Amino acid sequence: MDSSPLFIGINVIELEETTSTNTEAKLLIEKEKPLEGTVIIANKQTKGKGQQGNSWQTEAGQNLTCSYILYPVFLGADKHFYLNMVVSLAVKEACEVVLEDEVKVKWPNDVYYGNKKIAGILIENSISGATVITSVVGIGLNVNQTEFDTELQNAGSLKQFTGHDVLLQKIQQDLNIYLEKYYLQLRQQHFHFLQRAYTEALFRYNQTAYFKKGEQTFKGEITGIARDGKLIIESGGKEMRFNMQEVKFVI
Fold first, then answer.
1. Domain limits at 230?
2. Chain centroid to CA 215: how far?
Protein backbone atom coordinates (compact mmCIF):
# COMPACT_ATOMS: atom_id res chain seq x y z
CA MET A 1 0.00 0.00 0.00
CA ASP A 2 1.62 3.24 -1.18
CA SER A 3 -0.37 5.95 0.63
CA SER A 4 0.84 7.47 3.88
CA PRO A 5 -1.29 7.74 7.03
CA LEU A 6 -2.64 11.10 8.14
CA PHE A 7 -2.25 10.63 11.88
CA ILE A 8 -1.67 6.99 12.87
CA GLY A 9 2.01 6.48 13.64
CA ILE A 10 3.01 10.06 12.77
CA ASN A 11 4.12 10.77 16.35
CA VAL A 12 6.57 8.01 17.31
CA ILE A 13 8.16 7.35 20.70
CA GLU A 14 10.94 4.77 20.51
CA LEU A 15 12.21 3.04 23.64
CA GLU A 16 15.18 0.72 23.94
CA GLU A 17 13.58 -1.21 26.78
CA THR A 18 10.37 -1.12 28.81
CA THR A 19 8.27 -3.45 30.90
CA SER A 20 5.23 -2.92 28.68
CA THR A 21 4.42 -0.44 25.91
CA ASN A 22 0.79 -0.41 27.10
CA THR A 23 1.95 0.66 30.55
CA GLU A 24 4.12 3.39 29.00
CA ALA A 25 1.16 4.60 26.93
CA LYS A 26 -1.14 4.82 29.95
CA LEU A 27 1.48 6.74 31.94
CA LEU A 28 1.91 9.15 29.03
CA ILE A 29 -1.84 9.76 28.86
CA GLU A 30 -1.87 10.55 32.59
CA LYS A 31 0.94 13.11 32.24
CA GLU A 32 -0.19 14.76 29.02
CA LYS A 33 -2.57 14.18 26.16
CA PRO A 34 -0.39 13.03 23.26
CA LEU A 35 -1.61 13.31 19.70
CA GLU A 36 -4.09 10.69 18.59
CA GLY A 37 -2.27 7.97 16.70
CA THR A 38 0.88 8.29 18.81
CA VAL A 39 2.73 4.97 18.82
CA ILE A 40 5.20 3.75 21.42
CA ILE A 41 7.66 1.18 20.08
CA ALA A 42 10.02 -0.88 22.24
CA ASN A 43 13.09 -2.77 21.10
CA LYS A 44 12.83 -4.93 24.22
CA GLN A 45 9.73 -5.55 26.31
CA THR A 46 10.28 -7.41 29.57
CA LYS A 47 6.74 -7.80 30.88
CA GLY A 48 4.50 -7.68 27.84
CA LYS A 49 0.85 -8.36 28.54
CA GLY A 50 -1.75 -10.41 26.72
CA GLN A 51 -5.43 -11.02 27.28
CA GLN A 52 -6.63 -11.87 30.81
CA GLY A 53 -3.23 -11.07 32.34
CA ASN A 54 -1.30 -13.56 30.21
CA SER A 55 2.30 -12.64 29.42
CA TRP A 56 3.61 -11.98 25.90
CA GLN A 57 7.12 -13.34 25.43
CA THR A 58 9.33 -11.70 22.83
CA GLU A 59 13.00 -11.70 21.84
CA ALA A 60 14.69 -8.29 21.90
CA GLY A 61 15.09 -6.62 18.52
CA GLN A 62 13.39 -9.41 16.60
CA ASN A 63 9.71 -8.57 16.82
CA LEU A 64 7.26 -5.70 16.67
CA THR A 65 6.04 -4.64 20.12
CA CYS A 66 4.12 -1.39 20.14
CA SER A 67 1.13 0.47 21.55
CA TYR A 68 -1.06 3.06 19.84
CA ILE A 69 -2.98 5.80 21.64
CA LEU A 70 -6.46 6.49 20.28
CA TYR A 71 -9.35 8.72 21.37
CA PRO A 72 -12.49 7.05 19.96
CA VAL A 73 -14.91 9.44 21.69
CA PHE A 74 -17.37 8.81 18.85
CA LEU A 75 -17.71 5.17 19.95
CA GLY A 76 -20.33 4.04 22.44
CA ALA A 77 -19.11 1.77 25.21
CA ASP A 78 -21.57 -0.88 24.06
CA LYS A 79 -19.75 -1.00 20.71
CA HIS A 80 -16.20 -1.24 22.07
CA PHE A 81 -15.64 -4.63 20.39
CA TYR A 82 -15.69 -2.90 17.01
CA LEU A 83 -12.32 -1.39 17.93
CA ASN A 84 -11.06 -4.93 18.39
CA MET A 85 -12.32 -5.72 14.89
CA VAL A 86 -10.47 -2.69 13.50
CA VAL A 87 -7.13 -3.63 15.03
CA SER A 88 -7.43 -7.34 14.21
CA LEU A 89 -8.16 -6.58 10.55
CA ALA A 90 -5.25 -4.13 10.37
CA VAL A 91 -2.75 -6.63 11.78
CA LYS A 92 -4.11 -9.36 9.52
CA GLU A 93 -3.73 -7.22 6.41
CA ALA A 94 -0.21 -6.05 7.31
CA CYS A 95 0.84 -9.69 7.74
CA GLU A 96 -0.74 -10.66 4.42
CA VAL A 97 1.46 -8.12 2.63
CA VAL A 98 4.53 -9.99 3.90
CA LEU A 99 3.23 -13.54 3.56
CA GLU A 100 1.40 -12.98 0.27
CA ASP A 101 -1.23 -15.35 1.56
CA GLU A 102 -4.41 -15.34 3.64
CA VAL A 103 -4.10 -14.76 7.38
CA LYS A 104 -6.90 -15.43 9.87
CA VAL A 105 -8.13 -13.87 13.12
CA LYS A 106 -8.63 -16.35 15.94
CA TRP A 107 -11.41 -14.93 18.07
CA PRO A 108 -11.21 -12.63 19.81
CA ASN A 109 -7.89 -11.06 18.79
CA ASP A 110 -5.08 -13.45 17.96
CA VAL A 111 -3.73 -13.50 14.42
CA TYR A 112 -2.98 -16.90 12.90
CA TYR A 113 -1.25 -18.21 9.82
CA GLY A 114 -2.28 -21.82 9.40
CA ASN A 115 -2.37 -23.21 12.93
CA LYS A 116 0.36 -20.89 14.22
CA LYS A 117 -0.14 -17.71 16.23
CA ILE A 118 1.92 -14.87 14.79
CA ALA A 119 0.39 -11.90 16.63
CA GLY A 120 -1.61 -10.94 19.69
CA ILE A 121 -3.55 -7.81 20.59
CA LEU A 122 -4.40 -6.22 23.92
CA ILE A 123 -6.75 -3.22 23.96
CA GLU A 124 -7.26 -1.33 27.21
CA ASN A 125 -10.13 1.17 27.12
CA SER A 126 -11.01 4.02 29.43
CA ILE A 127 -14.77 4.54 29.52
CA SER A 128 -16.69 7.53 30.83
CA GLY A 129 -20.43 7.14 31.02
CA ALA A 130 -21.48 5.51 27.78
CA THR A 131 -18.44 6.57 25.74
CA VAL A 132 -14.97 5.21 25.10
CA ILE A 133 -12.63 8.10 25.95
CA THR A 134 -9.19 6.60 25.37
CA SER A 135 -7.90 3.33 23.98
CA VAL A 136 -4.42 1.91 24.35
CA VAL A 137 -3.90 -0.63 21.59
CA GLY A 138 -1.04 -3.03 22.27
CA ILE A 139 0.23 -5.23 19.46
CA GLY A 140 2.82 -7.98 19.64
CA LEU A 141 3.84 -9.40 16.27
CA ASN A 142 6.36 -12.22 15.87
CA VAL A 143 8.52 -11.07 12.98
CA ASN A 144 12.09 -12.44 12.94
CA GLN A 145 12.15 -14.64 16.04
CA THR A 146 12.58 -18.31 15.14
CA GLU A 147 12.86 -20.02 18.52
CA PHE A 148 10.09 -20.01 21.13
CA ASP A 149 9.64 -21.54 24.56
CA THR A 150 8.48 -25.15 24.36
CA GLU A 151 5.27 -24.19 26.18
CA LEU A 152 4.36 -21.98 23.21
CA GLN A 153 3.76 -24.88 20.87
CA ASN A 154 1.57 -22.95 18.45
CA ALA A 155 3.77 -19.83 18.15
CA GLY A 156 5.14 -18.87 14.75
CA SER A 157 6.77 -15.88 13.06
CA LEU A 158 6.82 -14.20 9.68
CA LYS A 159 10.45 -15.22 9.15
CA GLN A 160 9.65 -18.88 9.75
CA PHE A 161 7.10 -18.80 6.94
CA THR A 162 8.94 -16.56 4.47
CA GLY A 163 12.41 -17.98 5.06
CA HIS A 164 14.00 -14.53 5.29
CA ASP A 165 14.30 -11.55 7.63
CA VAL A 166 11.48 -9.03 7.51
CA LEU A 167 12.23 -5.32 7.92
CA LEU A 168 10.54 -4.19 11.14
CA GLN A 169 10.24 -0.60 9.95
CA LYS A 170 8.38 -1.66 6.81
CA ILE A 171 5.79 -3.77 8.61
CA GLN A 172 5.33 -0.97 11.16
CA GLN A 173 4.60 1.45 8.31
CA ASP A 174 2.11 -0.97 6.76
CA LEU A 175 0.45 -1.46 10.13
CA ASN A 176 0.07 2.32 10.52
CA ILE A 177 -1.64 2.53 7.14
CA TYR A 178 -4.06 -0.35 7.67
CA LEU A 179 -4.91 0.68 11.22
CA GLU A 180 -5.84 4.15 10.00
CA LYS A 181 -7.82 2.65 7.11
CA TYR A 182 -10.04 0.57 9.39
CA TYR A 183 -10.17 3.14 12.20
CA LEU A 184 -11.60 5.69 9.77
CA GLN A 185 -14.22 3.13 8.77
CA LEU A 186 -15.15 2.90 12.44
CA ARG A 187 -15.22 6.68 12.82
CA GLN A 188 -17.66 6.80 9.90
CA GLN A 189 -19.77 4.18 11.74
CA HIS A 190 -19.47 1.53 9.05
CA PHE A 191 -20.34 -1.14 11.60
CA HIS A 192 -21.85 -3.61 9.15
CA PHE A 193 -18.77 -3.49 6.91
CA LEU A 194 -16.42 -4.09 9.83
CA GLN A 195 -18.48 -6.90 11.31
CA ARG A 196 -18.73 -8.66 7.96
CA ALA A 197 -15.00 -8.29 7.24
CA TYR A 198 -14.06 -9.51 10.72
CA THR A 199 -16.47 -12.45 10.58
CA GLU A 200 -15.19 -13.57 7.18
CA ALA A 201 -11.61 -13.35 8.49
CA LEU A 202 -12.29 -15.62 11.45
CA PHE A 203 -10.15 -18.69 12.01
CA ARG A 204 -12.31 -21.79 11.31
CA TYR A 205 -15.32 -19.74 10.27
CA ASN A 206 -18.05 -21.95 8.78
CA GLN A 207 -15.91 -25.03 9.41
CA THR A 208 -16.70 -27.98 11.64
CA ALA A 209 -14.21 -27.86 14.50
CA TYR A 210 -13.73 -28.91 18.10
CA PHE A 211 -14.03 -26.53 21.04
CA LYS A 212 -13.65 -26.82 24.78
CA LYS A 213 -15.89 -25.34 27.46
CA GLY A 214 -14.54 -26.12 30.89
CA GLU A 215 -13.75 -29.83 30.83
CA GLN A 216 -16.22 -30.56 28.05
CA THR A 217 -15.10 -30.90 24.42
CA PHE A 218 -17.75 -30.43 21.76
CA LYS A 219 -18.04 -30.20 17.98
CA GLY A 220 -19.51 -27.12 16.38
CA GLU A 221 -19.27 -24.49 13.69
CA ILE A 222 -18.56 -20.78 14.08
CA THR A 223 -21.40 -18.96 12.34
CA GLY A 224 -20.74 -15.37 13.34
CA ILE A 225 -20.03 -12.68 15.90
CA ALA A 226 -22.64 -10.84 17.94
CA ARG A 227 -22.52 -7.03 18.11
CA ASP A 228 -21.18 -7.27 21.66
CA GLY A 229 -18.30 -9.45 20.47
CA LYS A 230 -19.62 -12.81 21.64
CA LEU A 231 -18.63 -15.79 19.53
CA ILE A 232 -21.59 -17.60 17.96
CA ILE A 233 -21.19 -21.36 17.58
CA GLU A 234 -23.81 -23.73 16.24
CA SER A 235 -23.63 -27.19 17.77
CA GLY A 236 -26.16 -30.00 17.60
CA GLY A 237 -28.72 -27.72 16.00
CA LYS A 238 -28.43 -25.15 18.80
CA GLU A 239 -26.91 -21.67 18.69
CA MET A 240 -24.58 -20.85 21.57
CA ARG A 241 -22.90 -17.54 22.41
CA PHE A 242 -19.67 -17.24 24.35
CA ASN A 243 -17.80 -14.45 26.09
CA MET A 244 -14.00 -14.32 26.15
CA GLN A 245 -12.43 -17.18 28.11
CA GLU A 246 -15.69 -19.14 28.15
CA VAL A 247 -14.68 -21.33 25.22
CA LYS A 248 -11.35 -22.48 23.79
CA PHE A 249 -10.32 -23.79 20.40
CA VAL A 250 -8.93 -27.32 20.21
CA ILE A 251 -5.93 -26.94 17.89
1. 208-249
2. 27
Asked if residue 5 belongs to a domain, the reply is no
| Sheet hosting strand 216-225, strand order edge to edge | 238-242, 231-235, 216-225, 208-213, 248-249
pLDDT at residue number 1: 55
Return the H-helix or E-strand segment holding 170.
helix 168-187
Dihedral sign for Cα 123, 206, 177, 63, please. positive
Q: In the chain, what is the straight-line distance between the N-terminal and C-terminal CA atoms, in Å?
A: 33
Q: What is the mean pLDDT of the chain?
A: 94
Residues 163 and 57 grouped into a single domain: yes
Gap between the Cα atoms of 70 and 91, Å rounded: 16
Q: How many CB atoms lie within 10 A of CB 133?
A: 15
**What's the whole-model pTM score?**
0.94
88: closest CA among 182, 4, 159?
A: 182
**How many helices (H) and strands (E) are present in the chain, helices listed first?**
5, 14
Does residue 84 sit in helix, strand or coil?
helix
